[in-house]
Specification:
By secondary structure, this protein is an alpha+beta fold. It contains 2 helices and 5 strands, in the order βββββαα.
């Protein structure tokens, strides 16, 4: 499956994340949308390079997203295994 959703507890409370997978020749990527109550969705990318997943293409990642990075990566790993 190329997309999935997961609700995670963040600093702001329960936050819905929608993951959409894209593949390129060298990397696996998930374009992620974070949805929380009254806020506009926040878009960012999580990419795998050299066996390591990390948030990329998001120069000003909000602290509440950065703090949830390990949980986001764990959600991807659980989904792919």
């Amino acid at each position: 499956m190329n997309h999935f959703a997961k609700t995670l507890k963040t600093q702001l409370g329960n936050t819905d994340f929608i993951f959409k997978k894209t593949l390129t020749a060298n990397t696996s990527k998930y374009h992620v949308e974070a949805h929380f109550a009254a806020f506009e969705p926040y878009h960012f990318t999580i990419e795998q390079k050299e066996e390591e997943w990390r948030i990329v293409n998001a120069p000003k990642v909000p602290a509440w997203i950065k703090d949830a990075e390990k949980d986001l990566i764990l959600a991807i790993l659980m989904h792919t295994n």
